[in-house]
Design goal:
Structural class: alpha/beta
Distance between the termini: 9 Å
Radius of gyration: 13 Å
Helix content: 40-55%
Strand content: 15-25%
Largest sheet: 5 strands, parallel
Number of strands: 5
Oligomer: single chain
Order of helices and strands: EHEHEHEHEH
Number of helices: 5
Length: about 120
């Protein structure tokens, strides 16, 4: 069994480093992206099993990226939004656009792993 693949998109290098480290330690294969355009370009080539997406990013924001993902051939990939936006309207907008889950920053790194596990099969031991 292969390791589930997770793509994490965030323009904050520290956030990417922490998330990548925790998810890799939990047994997932992780690829990072720094903006929505990078997500769209790399997701087609890499075929992730899960995408974790920030909403506030340069080049292409998370809302637009989510809409494009869900409208295309990658639409069945679950997307977990990870954002500092905590307003109910933003959360509802993301969920209505097809996000599978929404995690607000700051969060405990263990919660990131738990949310990934909720949407994926367990990684191979």
């Amino acid at each position: 069994m292969t390791q589930p693949r997770i793509m994490i998109a965030d323009d904050n290098p520290l956030m990417l480093q922490i998330a990548q480290s925790r998810l890799t330690d939990a047994g997932y294969e992780v690829l990072t992206a720094r903006d929505g355009m990078e997500v769209l370009d790399q997701a087609h080539a890499w075929s992730p099993d899960l995408i974790m997406l920030d909403l506030i990013m340069p080049a292409l924001d998370g809302f637009t990226t989510l809409k494009r993902l869900k409208a295309g051939p990658l639409g069945s990939i679950p997307v977990i939004i990870i954002s500092a936006l905590k307003d109910e309207a933003d959360i509802a907008r993301a969920l209505n656009a097809g996000a599978a889950d929404y995690l607000t920053k700051p969060f405990a790194p263990s919660e990131l792993v738990e949310r990934a596990a909720t949407h994926l099969a367990p990684p191979a031991s």
